[in-house]
Amino acid sequence: MAYRRLVQHHQTHVWQFVCLLLSLYLLGVLYLNVSYLVHQPQRAGGRRLSPADLVGFDYRLYSLFGEDFILGRYRPRDCKPRKNFAFIKCMKCATETLGGVLRRYSYVHNLSVVLPVKDKIYLGWPFPMTPLDHRPSGREYNALIEHAIYNGTFMRSFMANGTAFLTILREPGDHFVSTLNYFNVFEIANVSVRHGMEAVHEYIRNIEKYETIYKRPAAEKRYCIPDGFSVSKNLLSQCLGMPLGFPSGTPNITDNARAVRQYIKALDKEFLLVMLMEYFDESLVLLRRLMCWTIKDILFHVSNVGSYRSKAARRPQLSPDDRAAHKRWSSVDYALYSHFNKTFWNKVGLQGPDFHYEVAHFRQVQKAVTSFCLNIAKYAGSQIEFPESFWSPPFNVSSSDCQLMTAPLLPLLKKRHEELEPQYANYPKVKVKRNYQPLC
Ligand SMILES: *[C@@H]1O[C@H](CO)[C@@H](O)[C@H](O)[C@H]1NC(C)=O
Ligand SMILES: *[C@@H]1O[C@H](CO)[C@@H](O)[C@H](O)[C@H]1NC(C)=O
Ligand SMILES: *[C@@H]1O[C@H](CO)[C@@H](O)[C@H](O)[C@H]1NC(C)=O
Ligand SMILES: *[C@@H]1O[C@H](CO)[C@@H](O)[C@H](O)[C@H]1NC(C)=O
Ligand SMILES: *[C@@H]1O[C@H](CO)[C@@H](O)[C@H](O)[C@H]1NC(C)=O
Ligand SMILES: *[C@@H]1O[C@H](CO)[C@@H](O)[C@H](O)[C@H]1NC(C)=O
Ligand SMILES: *[C@@H]1O[C@H](CO)[C@@H](O)[C@H](O)[C@H]1NC(C)=O
């Protein structure tokens, strides 16, 4: 017995030694790799890459599409790029990714952007936006991007004429799950289960109880969310300005199905495009076409690789019972999504047969650019040269384009505004008494 323990003890030592050697070896390999990467820029710097030099650009796909669309010459469309837009940025609908695209467009085209005051990041959200929530400007406003509650009358009063209203929605059940996690609701509402779909299940089963705890005054760690505000009930419709009783004392049409239908119809008239997060690539291509922008304009950066679609496929789903319960709780959002899921496909249908080819083409371009931008240390100073296609003249994507895609642009837009109109950097100079004080 004692002998066995001794042998085991001895064996442990041998194993420890082997592990040590292995660790040293791995560290060595790692060091060599890192120094290889660090020195790589000199080797690859200034290279002119074809998309096929990066993973995943498959020209064979193109022969499937037929020569006409892909290798055919660029057919310029008879339209002028639209440079006036208001993007209604609702929470947890890939709006940060889309916001990045729109901020870059604004930055590159030197647009006049509606910017939050001082160091704020929202335009009054989730309260109704007022003139106190944005920096004044002597220039006509071209772009509104940051979080604001939609009010067409108010927004049209200061945006350039012919402003295109844009937004993106997400299937309300998935949106609900994502929102609970993002706003740390399980912890703040003291839900007895904290993780995974069991926590969501527990929350839905006792939703009134947990909502009350979450919304109570002085709840900790709610950061930008004010007292009495629900993040689980009709958040998308509230963001689109539907009168749903927040802030308290304002009209609430939640239970008036006819008024809800009318409001959705009015939105449909006022918005040029309502995109869908589940069809992110299709949404961007539709955006590009309706705004008469270029393919380069709609390239985007996601910090964690993988399309929203493939991530959605891996994400745990609400059980049918929980979804049904949430649908009763948040019925207005389901009506909203269902309507714009139809109009989205109607708009796609009007685009003609090459639309889906362009989406496939855009995916390849985006894949090459993602691979390039994620390995920017290796490709510093290089560029990808994309050939002419049916939808686009030739264009280049350089490492400085990657920087524009990854940099936080809101501070840069504010900086540019402060250089041009320093008198408004500190607006409002005196504290104004107001009904609601947005937190962020
Ligand atoms: C942007 O536009 C403003 C107003 O037209 C102009 O004064 C400014 O120089 C421009 N800035 C850049 C970087 O083009
Ligand atoms: C929308 O804006 C208009 C004009 O500023 C204002 O009169 C109205 O009260 C606003 N509506 C809401 C719901 O805040
Ligand atoms: C928009 O057009 C209307 C009438 O066409 C005009 O009165 C108004 O001044 C214009 N607004 C801006 C910001 O150009
Ligand atoms: C959280 O819930 C537990 C029971 O699940 C209870 O014992 C505890 O007092 C609650 N904490 C707060 C802050 O409500
Ligand atoms: C609006 O009305 C609905 C249904 O009566 C209710 O559940 C909801 O809490 C109300 N909204 C607010 C913000 O009070
Ligand atoms: C959206 O519309 C598509 C096409 O009609 C349909 O297949 C899909 O089930 C709809 N999604 C939802 C969540 O309603
Ligand atoms: C792309 O870069 C190449 C090499 O610098 C240049 O010759 C070409 O004109 C660029 N194309 C565009 C569309 O800017």
UniProtKB/TrEMBL annotation:
The keyword Mitochondrion does not apply. It is a single-pass type II membrane protein. It is found in: Golgi apparatus membrane. GO terms for cellular component: Golgi membrane. Keywords: Glycoprotein, Golgi apparatus, Membrane, Signal-anchor, Transferase, Transmembrane, Transmembrane helix. GO terms for molecular function: sulfotransferase activity. The chain crosses the membrane at residues 14-38. Belongs to the galactose-3-O-sulfotransferase family. PANTHER family: GALACTOSE-3-O-SULFOTRANSFERASE, PUTATIVE-RELATED. This is Uncharacterized protein.
